[in-house]
Structure formats: C-alpha cells, structure tokens
C-alpha cells in the first residue's frame, strides 16, 4: 500500500475590508463606501440586522468561497466591517468563533 500523500495546502483568501465596505454600503446604506469606517457599529446604526447577517454571510461564500460556521453567525461578528473580515478570515483558516 503506497504511503498517503499529504493534503495539498489550501490557500486562505485575502478578505478585503474595502470590498466588504462596498457591499455593505451598496446593500444596506445610502452613503459612499469610502466614508465607511471599518470600526463603525453597523448594528447600533441599524444598518445590519439578523437578516442582513445572513445576506452578508451568503455574499462572503459567493465572493470568497468562505462558509461561516453556524456559531460564527452571531451579531458580534457582524458589528463592523473589521469584525466581518476577521470572522471570515477565521472561517477561511479553519477556525470558528473567537
């Protein structure tokens, strides 16, 4: 029996805060993406709600091939553009929630 080959390393996609900001702006805000602070609280501003979380998660899967585990679909991971990027990067690297 031949030895097993090691699994080919999978590349973790580069998740862009600018692309996330553009998506959030285009779908949830009326402002320009350039003006969206990556730490702006999207939940407190009412920009994203629980349905918005699912919409962003579906976009992340389509755009980057990143599937967020159920535990990562919590509102805290969608509080800001930066939080969305960090959650997507953890999922892409095989990690779960923080």
Helix content: 25-40%
DSSP E strands, number: 0
The H-and-E topology, N to C, reads as HHH
Low-confidence stretches: none
User: What is the straight-line distance between the termini?
Assistant: 41 Å
CATH topology of the domain at 37-98, which one? Non-ribosomal Peptide Synthetase Peptidyl Carrier Protein, Chain A
Overall, the morphology is: globular
CATH class category of the domain at 37-98? Mainly Alpha
Note down, in words, how this protein is organized:
The protein is mainly α and 98 residues long. It has a domain at 37-98: Non-ribosomal Peptide Synthetase Peptidyl Carrier Protein, Chain A, CATH 1.10.1200.10. Helices cover 40% and strands 0% of the residues. It has three helices and no strands. It has helices at residues 17-28, 50-64, 81-92. Helix 1 crosses helix 3 (81-92). It is globular. The model has no long low-confidence stretch (mean pLDDT 86).
Helix-strand layout with pairing:
Blueprint: H1 17-28, H2 50-64, H3 81-92
Which descriptors would you attach to this protein?
98 residues, mainly alpha, Non-ribosomal Peptide Synthetase Peptidyl Carrier Protein, Chain A, globular, PP-bd_ACP, Carrier domain-containing protein
Outline:
With 98 residues, this protein is mostly helical. The chain has three helices and no strands.
């Amino acid at each position: 029996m031949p030895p097993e080959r090691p699994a080919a390393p999978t590349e973790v996609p580069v998740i862009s805060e600018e692309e996330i900001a553009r998506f959030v702006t285009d779908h949830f805000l009326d402002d320009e993406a350039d003006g969206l602070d990556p730490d702006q609280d999207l939940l407190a501003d009412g920009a994203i709600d629980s349905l918005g979380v699912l919409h962003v998660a579906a976009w992340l899967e389509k755009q980057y091939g990143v599937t967020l585990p159920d535990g990562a679909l919590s509102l805290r991971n969608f509080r800001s553009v930066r939080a969305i990027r960090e959650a997507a990067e953890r999922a892409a690297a095989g990690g779960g929630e923080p």
